Amino acid sequence: MALNPRTRGPRRTLWTFAAIIIALFVLIFSVNRWGTGQLTPKLGLDLEGGTQMVLEPVLADPNAEVSSGQLEKARDIIAQRVDSNGVAEAEVSTQGGRNIVISIPGQPDAKTLDQIRKPSQLRFRAVLVTGSGIPATVTTPTSTATGTQTSEPTATTPKPVFTMDPAPTATSPATSGNAVVPPALVSETSPTAPAATSTPTATAAATPTPANASDLAWITPEIEAEFTALDCTKAGAINDFVDDPAKPLVTCSTDRVEKYILGPVELDGTDIADATSGYQSGNNGQPTNIVEVRLNFTGEGGQKFANVTTRLYALQAADQTRNRFAIVLDKQVISAPSTNAVIANGQASITGNFTIESARSLAQQLKFGALPMSFALQTQDDISPTLGKEQLGLGLLAGLIGLLLVVGYSLFQYRLLGLVTVASLIVAAVLTYGVLTLLGWSHNFRLTMAGVTGVIVAIGVTADSFIVYFERVRDEVREGRPLVTAVDSGWRRARRTILAADGVNLLAATVLYLLAASNVRGFAFTLGVTTLIDLAVVFLFTHPLVSILAHTKFFGGGHPWSGLDPERLGAKTTQPRYAGAGRFTGTPVRTAAAKEAKA
């Protein structure tokens, strides 16, 4: 039997939608097989339980007391850092005006726990000296001006670290007047072997008063001894070092490849207004393939940064080591970019061998890394789910009952046309399951009881779209139009109503997600996701399917059990029993009005 050419477009739409669903589940199985994804949606704290940590604030001054304002600010920043991992439905609260309690669903890995509980004081320091943090397998002792022996690696290739761009051509940046200077660029490459450059000398150490934060006079014999003895590969190598903002610091990079002597703190995390990551824009405004991290400083921070970059840029030709500006988080250097321009507008760009993931990680550290205090871990315990699988089962049972009621009403009201509603709801359920499962892998989304409620509410939203569409089509049939024409004109009228209704739901979900907190955000998130799924199902499945059915003899001919019988609907004029595929059966429909006229 040849296919009707008039249904080619709807059939193509259905096949495209089927391909999208298949691709979705292929991706889910792939990330489960070769990645960290799972085959079911992740559950939230109330349904699965998780880990609870109690953190106690530790101030630099042991005699100072933590104020309620400091504690609330710390709570807000920690909550931001937790939420930056996705819609995980974690809970962050204060306890007794002294501690911060963090409850995380599931069993987070050690990296996540360390990121949350470690004391995080984001600071910017000038680089004075760099050296290899990895012990060499074969060492070559060399004598320095101070008589101290150092070793340079000859057989060990260090991992990639942040290093310098090649010095640009000898032109001074335009800093006069009100000209906005382009952001400084940073590159991260694979160095051949970071050697102990700019080794401190006895002359520098003897200088009584450093002129600025980049002055080698900060390096005392004690600092030099710490630097020489530091082995970054040893666990806890820098734990005993004091991070005093007014003094130099000996430390390592986070990957333990490079070690540093850094000058005093010149900026800290409070000077950062925002940090984002993405692809750098070219001269024409179009994105390039260069991944960058953009920094926006506050007004005061921008002025500080302008002063620092003015000094560091002047060092570029003379000393590429002291041209670097280290970003220090919890006493470790997370990046040490070079300075390639004077930045007078409070905006900087860091580029290099970034991936999107590594750039996003650095941006999050810059944005959320500044805490007004550090914290010590008091307790870490596993916690049981507050509701558990029984409540989840009851919620799913409520959803099933609601689904059955919708199906029963559809079959009663629309006869066999109601089967389209059943098929659409099944497709929507499958798509919702797949999307929520994939979001658990990509955005750490976890389904809570509030989220389950949002999914249940979505059943009514989806059913409402079907009812609007079907009733519009039936109104067109009542006007005496053939079913094929009624489907097209009814869809044009219903489409505007469906878009308006779902647009209102999506707007409400967005506002609720942005303004609410805790589990309410989970409800808003699932409501928004299922609203978008409703639009996809109605446009890509329900409408094409009805268009195809309109060209069949059973539905197009207005069979009494089709739900589109003109006589039962009280059509105003007679019409062919079947108008599909451009031909008619020749059997007129006897409408109620015709029967009365004949009588």
TrEMBL record:
Start-end of Low complexity biased regions? 138-158, 189-210
What segment(s) does the record annotate as region Disordered? 138-210
Compositional bias, Polar residues, is annotated for 169-178
Q: Which GO terms describe its molecular function?
A: protein-transporting ATPase activity
Q: Where in the cell is it found?
A: Cell membrane
Q: Which UniProt keywords apply?
A: Cell membrane, Membrane, Protein transport, Translocation, Transmembrane, Transmembrane helix, Transport
Q: Which superkingdom is the protein from? A: Bacteria
Segments passing through the bilayer: 12-31, 392-412, 419-441, 447-470, 498-516, 522-541
Q: What is one process in the GO biological process aspect for this record? A: protein transport by the Sec complex
Q: Name one GO cellular component term.
A: plasma membrane
Give the matching InterPro entries: SecD (IPR005791), SecD/SecF_arch_bac (IPR022813), SecD_1st (IPR048631), SecD_SecF_C (IPR048634), SecD_SecF_C_bact (IPR055344), SecDF_P1_head (IPR054384)
Q: Where is the Protein export membrane protein SecD/SecF C-terminal domain?
A: 376-548
- SecDF P1 head subdomain domain residues are 258-372
- Topological category with respect to the lipid bilayer: Multi-pass membrane protein
Per the database record, which ranges form the Protein translocase subunit SecDF P1 domain?
A: 72-127
Can you state the subunit structure given in the record?
Forms a complex with SecF. Part of the essential Sec protein translocation apparatus which comprises SecA, SecYEG and auxiliary proteins SecDF. Other proteins may also be involved.
Q: What does this protein do?
A: Part of the Sec protein translocase complex. Interacts with the SecYEG preprotein conducting channel. SecDF uses the proton motive force (PMF) to complete protein translocation after the ATP-dependent function of SecA.
**Record protein name field:** Protein translocase subunit SecD
Originating species: Candidatus Phosphoribacter hodrii
- Gene name, please? secD
